[in-house]
Amino acid sequence: xxxxxxxxxxxxxxxxxxxxxxVNHCMTRLRFKLKDVxxxxxxxxxxxxxxxxxxxxxxxxxxxxxxxxxxxxxxxxKDLGVNGGEVIDENLDDLSESKEKLTWKTAGNKFIGYISxxxxxxxxxxxxxxxxxxxxxxxxxxxDTKYATSSSYMLLSAIADAPFYFMPIIVAYGAAIKLGxxxxxxxxxxxxxxxxxxxxxxxxxxxxxxxxxxxPLLSYGTSLLxxxxxAFVAYHLERFFNKIVxxxxxxxxxxxxTILVSGILGYIILGPLGxxxxxxxxxxxxxxxxxxxxLAVGTLAACLPWMVMAGMHTALAPFMAQLLTNPGYDxxxxxxxxxxxxxEGGSSFGVAARIKNKQxxxxxISIAIGCIVAxxxxxxxxxxxxxxxxxxxxVMAGGFVGGVxxxxxxxxxxxxxxxxxxxxxxxxxxxxxxxIAIIAAIVTSFIVTFILGIEQKGESKVTKPVQKVYSNDAIxxxxxxxxxxxxxxxxxxxASKMLGEGIALKLENDFICSPANGTLTTLFPTGHAFGVxxxxxxxxxxxxxxxxxxxxxxGFDVLVKQGDKVRAGEPIVRVDRSKIEKKGxxxxxxxxxxxxxxxxxxxxxxxxxxxxxxxN
Length: 616
Known about the structure:
By secondary structure, the protein is of the alpha+beta class. It has 20 helices and 17 strands. α4 (104-119) crosses α7 (167-179) and α14 runs antiparallel to α15 (358-374). Mean pLDDT is 83; it is low at 86-99 and 458-466.
């Protein structure tokens, strides 16, 4: 596969380099933070070879690539120069930036985006620490029980526990990055809750106060919500101090004021409030599990494929750690995550058993194994099960059956770990319960998928509006619509033929195509106009709409690059006619002969035309 071309096509279809603030990646997907999401062309992206799916969630535009991820990401960052994972500098003094209107929907998206981005740096650490705990557990269980009393074990346990104990600091970092504040201020405020002085006072158990205000004696190791609150407050405090402190003193007093006020609020208000909310969430999950019973895990596992597609599953991950702290085990979240992954694998096996294409069968078996062994499900969700639609019922059935069985048999997670088959030791004495549930999930999803079958359709491809071959002297209509005389255009520059002779078109299609065989010599970044030098030396200009340059590219999707060889009828720009016309713009499109190269060229007004109709 040509990864440079794939990278270029992806960047073009998310709105171009100028529309990308930053691009990151996880194990299977590119994660773009775009300036204007409306510029991204989801349909064209999904039809690119190598792209398994596209989703927008948590303020991230995600392109699912599976095994093609890393080389494509490297090509985007190294060859195209896109900002790869670096923090976007934001001026905390600049309050002029327009804000998205706050609605229930946007508020929900922002909340999920804030939680997801805040915990993103934490999750790998929790999993790494959890798996180290598993290794240590296996050693003292099966190798040497006395090892648990050794200094080596104590030190290694400290390494494994560090991501959990210092969770507030890591979460504060992620939250500050998401908000655009200075990370170290939020981290310091969170670290104060773990400082030896405070921990010592809590351990002593005597009442304490700060400036005469009572300070609750609480432990904040492994806590999540206090850090989220602290980072939020620290960000707004930093903005406040940047506004009121004179520029010459900011380097001294902004930071000091931010950590002082946020730290005090952390002891007195934010820490206790976050602790209370955390316990409330843990109690909710326990109540949900206790009231609904065995249906709780099954229902969550059945819903997870849709939550993954919406990006909502990441918001649940932090609360796994919350449950491991209080009440000390997780009977619902991690079991559901694992069983969903197993069901995705089982359903992919079912698709592989039904499909006739041997190459695809081999690929789907590999994807199924990846779900079960590695816990990577995006290729299965977007590339297999959602692709054929009916297998998603198999995934849901497998997750539900496995979840019900896991709950009935009492499967419990005691240590943070991956959601795959290798993490079974995190269930400790309930390991056999989860093994039985896993087998049930895989078998159920396989059987349901195999019985329901698959909706097998031909591969969807982006087709060219015109496939006809034209002579090099032919000039054709650039889209479908009604031709009108240039003099009738509501723009004096074109109507007076100041730029040259030509014709105009009232658009009835979203694709604007090349008027001739030649080279794309000019292509405005906004997409509203382009020029073609034909093979016989004629220069042609296509101008889409009147005054559309003012849109600054909004509603225009450029499909090619300046300097490309193009043929008559080949798509150059795709326009969102509805969006542009709603903004009050006239989309009459002009085709102008700016240089006839000494030839006599007359373009006919043919009335109603289709793209590719010969005009000369």
